[in-house]
Write a structure and sequence with these properties.
alpha/beta; binds zinc ion; 17 strands; 408 residues; eight-stranded mixed sheet; 24% strand; four-stranded parallel sheet; globular
Length: 408
């Protein structure tokens, strides 16, 4: 790979929330070599004129499930993993086409999927993965029907969770994911909307199990992400050292000081509830899941308002699965009710990079960073909606210095 120069660019700095006009971005191999006015390169450099358009870092979605490929998640858990991987590949391709160059997989995706992208067999964003989600028996990752006794603990079953009970088992579960290269560990701190036998308002795992999970993850220099809805579940997780709270729809103000004390991140995923609600209205969801959905959907915006007012680090996440991925950019539109555009952009770039522990690598247009770049027709700092029409407004998509789309 040679040198690529994007000239005549208005470079977006997410941290400052500003555009710098008349810049050139020099890409050497997979990384950004230089950013500044009027830079030149060797004669054989590939030069593209951005025409004064916005050049910004590729987007980050920190809550995804590309490997949850069907609405009937229990049926899909019985499918061959090779078939699931093929369908996951299609989902990943769509994400990159929407401008997402990095995703965090928080359940279902694994080292094989990440490697398939890294080695170029699948086209998609780079994947930070945690493997299976840790669940207690009867917890949100236990997808057995209540009448079923046996759980297929084959790791390559496409089920989303691994069931572990008691301190020795949770330690082993974390160590297994560490052995497979996990970038983080995902744990169910409460019930979920899409699980067959638990309650959204429950807490899951004992405090000693949670402390053991965090201790094992910390030993491997990775962190724990926790799925939770109510403050009762969120606060237990934060006090045990969980670093990001996923969903949090039913959070109350008691969680805010704990987020601050522990430096934790908040990852709302509001678009998935809106999309599921549309399916529910069409009668596409089982009655018990539709009822759980009702319970969490109303709280979502209120939780976001509270977190935003408190200045918590808020990260972009969507939690879409199956055929819902085309809504991935709508989370921006929903959150725009509460957050200004610059905050929304940070949530999907620089703040997400902090959560993923990839500061300086992604979420920034600066020398030394990975060359993940978007050329956008329009200024998302003025109107975030320009990001939601990628077919029209994304003129160039580059990941790791490689161009995946070029309409310049
Ligand atoms: Zn999720």
């Amino acid at each position: 790979m040679g040198i690529t120069i994007l000239r005549n660019a208005s470079v977006l700095d997410p941290e400052r929330g500003e555009l710098a006009e008349g810049q050139s971005v020099v890409v050497d191999g997979g990384r950004i070599a230089d950013v500044g006015p009027g830079l030149a390169g060797p004669d054989d450099a590939a030069v593209f004129d951005a025409g004064g358009r916005t050049v910004m870092p590729g987007l980050i979605d920190a809550h995804t499930h590309p490997a949850v490929v069907d609405m009937d998640v229990f049926a899909a858990a019985e499918w061959p993993p090779s078939y699931v991987a093929a369908r996951a590949g299609r989902a990943l391709e769509g994400m990159l086409a929407r401008g997402f160059t990095t995703i965090r997989d928080v359940g279902g995706g694994d080292f094989g999927l990440a490697k398939a992208v890294e080695d170029g067999y699948f086209t998609g964003p780079r994947i930070r993965f945690g493997g299976k989600q840790l669940s207690q028996t009867g917890g949100a990752g236990d997808w057995r029907a209540p009448s079923r006794r046996v759980y297929d603990d084959n790791y390559y079953s496409p089920a989303i969770g691994v069931i572990c009970d008691g301190v020795p088992e949770v330690r082993r579960a974390v160590r297994e994911e560490v052995r497979r290269g996990a970038h983080h560990i995902k744990v169910y701190l409460s019930g979920a909307v899409d699980s067959p036998s638990d309650r959204v308002d429950s807490t899951q795992f004992s405090l000693e199990e949670l402390r053991a999970i965090v201790e094992e993850a910390t030993a491997a220099n990775i962190y724990v992400a926790g799925h939770a809805y109510t403050s009762r579940a969120i606060n237990r997780g934060l006090e045990c050292g969980v670093r990001s709270i996923e969903h949090g729809n039913l959070m109350d103000s008691s969680s805010i000081p704990l987020f601050k004390e522990y430096g934790a991140f908040y990852v709302p995923t509001i678009v998935t509830y809106h999309t599921l609600a549309a399916k529910s209205r069409d009668g596409q969801l089982p009655a018990d899941i539709a009822a759980k959905l009702e319970e969490v959907i109303d709280g979502a915006i209120g939780a976001l308002e509270m977190a935003h007012a408190a200045g918590l680090p808020i990260v972009y996440g969507t939690d879409l699965f199956a055929d819902m991925h085309d809504q991935q950019l709508q989370e921006f539109v929903i959150r725009a009710e509460v957050q200004p555009p610059a905050d929304l952009i940070r949530s999907a770039t620089s703040t997400a990079a902090r959560l993923l522990r990839l500061v300086g690598e992604v979420g920034v247009v600066a020398p030394g960073a990975l060359a993940d770049l978007l050329v956008v027709d329009g200024n998302p700092l003025d109107d975030i909606r320009v990001l939601t029409t990628p077919d029209r407004s994304l003129k160039l998509i580059m990941k790791d210095g490689q161009i995946y789309k070029n309409d310049l």
